[in-house]
Design goal:
With 388 residues, the chain is of the alpha+beta class. The chain has one domain: Chorismate synthase AroC (Chorismate synthase, AroC fold, 4-Layer Sandwich). Helices cover 35% and strands 19% of the residues. The strands form six sheets. Strands 8-7-9-15-10 form a five-stranded antiparallel β-sheet. A four-stranded antiparallel β-sheet has the order 1-2-6-3, with helices on one face. Strands 4-5 form a two-stranded antiparallel sheet. The chain is globular. The chain binds flavin mononucleotide. It comes from Staphylococcus rostri. GO terms for molecular function: chorismate synthase activity; FMN binding. This reaction introduces a second double bond into the aromatic ring system.
Length: 388
């Protein structure tokens, strides 16, 4: 399975083509849209999220609610495009109109793609860079992940996400999956504990008042994974390796870890490896899940636990020093409309990035032209974990 996204932040639409999902899989468009709305929510987001209401339109690959096996094209229209037609239209414009255009950007933001992208692609209007480097594109990735989530649900695999920390306020407690399901979606910072949620909101308010931004850590959990997805035989088939690439591929994500993550480096082997046990009805399992469900680049049957760290977003209302690329003068004052904290939304993006990689690995592992045949093989693998 593969996908390609296209579209600029203020262009008419985002488009994504996904190829490789099995045929005859049921697709619920309402559920896809629920995931899209979740990405737009969260405490600390800017005004743009109130202007847009992302919803998907499927224009190929699905007929009467079922996949055909052909490429699926999803379109996410930009409701705000009417205001941007002159600035973002594809048709050529006169030099006069160009010089009168108000939205030319010559002041690069530290931490964003603006300056390096301008240098690389020779854009003197940095809008040509930021329109694509903007996290608007993550809406398309959520759409793909949401499709894959429906595939995983039909294979009895569930994926959840939550926020672990924002601006240094942490909720690292271990919760049962049920607690996460019951609480996180209802909470605007996507944590289980409401006392911690309020501390996080206060942190976000504090940063906003200071004209600053804050980041955090998110966690994705994949439950009821069959054993042996991914492979130890070559580096680029390791499931944890692929997930790492996908997570760090999300805008502003600077690191990824699995299970107990970097603290593993401080522990003894006996404290971090998960002892192997056997149960007659469920098969092999682990006494603990310190390693987050991965051994040898493969799922070991325990829940996959993936953590991603997001840096504070680069656009600041009290900006850092930078240099105007026309005048070469220092400046300190460009304000693009921006979020002060996007960690709750980013947890949704991360959830869907992981979902795609898990689905991709499953489709590689088993014959996957048709959903029923795929399901039979996944069930057989689960049986094998008992009989082996
Ligand atoms: C959900 C989400 C929302 C974001 N919103 C903003 C934003 O409003 N302003 C901003 O400057 N960066 C925002 N970012 C981060 C930038 O897109 C990102 O920092 C930029 O593309 C540079 O890439 P890098 O940080 O990975 O180097 C957001 C990221 C995510 C995942």
């Amino acid at each position: 399975m593969r996908f390609l996204t296209a579209g600029e932040s203020h262009g008419p639409q985002l488009t994504v083509i996904v190829e490789g999902l099995p045929a005859n899989m049921q697709v619920d468009i309402e559920k896809l849209n629920e995931e899209m709305y979740k990405r737009q929510g969260g405490y600390g987001r800017g005004r743009r999220m109130q202007i847009e209401k992302d919803s998907v339109e499927i224009v190929s690959g699905v007929r009467h609610g079922y996949t055909l096996g052909s490429p699926i094209t999803i379109v996410i229209k930009n409701d705000d495009f009417t205001h941007w037609r002159n600035i973002m239209g594809a048709a050529p414009i006169s030099e006069e109109a160009q010089s009168e255009m108000k939205r030319v950007i010559t002041k690069p933001r530290p931490g964003h793609a603006d300056l390096v992208g301008g240098l690389k692609y020779q854009h003197r209007d940095l809008r040509n860079v930021l329109e694509r480097s903007s996290a608007r594109e993550t809406a398309a990735r959520v759409a793909v992940g949401a499709l894959c989530k429906q595939l995983l649900q039909q294979l009895d695999i569930d994926v959840y996400s939550r926020v672990i920390s924002i601006g240094g306020v942490s909720d690292k407690a271990h919760y049962d999956i049920e607690d996460i399901i019951q609480n996180v979606d209802k909470n605007d910072v996507r944590v289980v504990d409401e006392t911690i949620a309020q501390q996080m909101r206060d942190k976000i308010d504090e940063a906003k008042q200071e004209g600053d931004s804050i980041g955090g850590v998110v966690q994705v959990i994949v439950n009821h994974m069959p054993v042996g997805i991914g492979s130890y035989v070559h580096y680029d088939r390791k499931l944890d390796g692929r997930i790492a690439q996908s997570v760090v591929g999300i805008n502003a994500f600077k690191g990824v870890s699995f299970g107990e993550g970097f603290t593993a480096g401080e522990k003894l082997g006996s404290e971090i490896q998960d002892p192997i046990l056997y149960d007659e009805t469920t098969g092999y399992y682990r006494a603990s899940n310190h390693l987050g469900g991965f051994e040898g680049g493969m799922s070991n049957g325990m829940p996959l636990v993936i953590n991603g760290v997001m840096k504070p977003i680069p656009t600041l209302y009290r900006p850092l020093a930078s240099v105007d690329i026309n005048t070469k003068e220092p400046f300190k004052a460009t304000i693009e409309r921006s979020d002060s904290c996007a960690v709750p939304a980013a947890s949704i993006v991360c959830e869907h990035a992981v979902t795609f990689e898990v689905a991709r690995a499953l489709l590689e592992e088993f014959e996957s032209n048709d959903i029923t045949i795929l399901k039979q093989q996944v069930d057989a693998r689960r049986e094998q974990n008992i009989n082996f």
